[in-house]
From TrEMBL:
Domain Regulatory protein YycH-like: 38-272
Cellular component, GO, one term: membrane
Pfam entry (one): YycI
InterPro entries in alphabetical order: YycI-like (IPR018604)
Name the record gives this protein: Two-component signal transduction system YycFG, regulatory protein YycI
Length: 279
């Protein structure tokens, strides 16, 4: 077989191989495009359902506006230490108050191992009987919204900024720890005051609660866990900047979910930029 004939056969072989390879790539691209198209055509509810994620309530599509707020560092907790009784108290350099009661505060059996959420009447009992008692808590009446974590036996009361929007980053909360008998054994407290709005006449257009869930669902590294329940999606504030003694708070969507085994978690989405934020 002469050299020219060999070269011709090799050329034909590689030409046929290139055509075959190009056809396979085309098939894969078409398949990927179809899958992406199907994904885009599915509603967020359908995509969540496919992963066994349940919504306790419909996703809100109402367009909302939001603004930044600021606070200044304060000495409210330090100034109020002397008023506290019947507890061992410590205040850290970061202005976090930690206290253990000499005797647990009696919850009168209103929380049991079967309690999964905090009923409003129980929250009212805690506020009226304990948080509003100046000998037990400093400015306890300022904490109006609440959440219960049954796996940790922890009740969290949050302060709120403008429009009754809770601050959920841990910088303005009372976290009550229940003992094995579900009485209040100890707590930690942080505090902010004098909330001031920034550029109130130029509010930001925020993404909707529905769009926040879509952000979480489409990003693999921040995916909502499968086989879970989205309990609520709440407009909230978190601290994102500190300058000297000034704290700047940003509007976010706080997405709280519960895994099938009962563990509760949350994810934060920047309500202005539509980006997932680390807590």
């Amino acid at each position: 077989m002469d050299f020219k004939r060999i070269m011709l056969m090799l050329t034909l072989f590689f030409l046929i191989f290139d055509i075959y390879l190009g056809f396979r790539v085309y098939q894969q691209v078409q398949s990927t495009t179809i899958r992406q198209s199907d994904f885009q055509q599915q509603s967020i509810e359908q995509r969540l359902q496919a992963r066994d994620i349940t919504l306790l309530s419909p996703l809100n599509e109402e367009e909302v506006e939001g603004i930044l707020i600021k606070t200044e560092d304060n000495t409210v907790l330090r100034d109020g230490l002397n008023q506290l009784t019947h507890q061992q108290v410590n205040l850290s350099d970061e202005n976090v108050l930690t206290a253990t009661f000499d005797e647990p505060l009696n919850m009168e059996g209103q929380i049991t191992p079967e309690t999964s959420t905090l009923p409003s009447e129980v929250a009212k009992f805690i506020r009226d009987q304990y948080l509003l008692n100046d000998e037990l808590f400093i400015e306890g009446g300022a904490y109006t919204q609440y959440w219960y974590l049954p796996t940790n036996r922890t009740i969290v009361f949050w302060m709120t900024a403008i429009n009754n929007t809770p601050i959920v980053d841990g910088s303005a909360e009372i976290k009550l720890q229940l003992d094995e008998n579900y009485n209040i054994a100890s707590y930690t407290q942080t505090y902010q005051h004098n909330f001031v709005t920034l550029d109130e006449d130029k509010p930001y257009k925020l993404i909707t609660a529905r769009e926040a869930i879509e952000v979480l669902d489409t990003r693999i590294q921040t995916n909502l866990p499968s086989n879970s329940t989205i309990i609520h999606v709440t407009l909230s504030y978190i601290k994102y900047k500190e300058w000297d003694e000034i704290n700047i708070y940003l509007p976010v969507w706080n997405v709280v979910y519960q895994r099938s085994e009962g563990q509760t978690g949350s994810m934060i989405v920047d309500a202005i930029k539509g980006q997932v934020m680390e807590r």
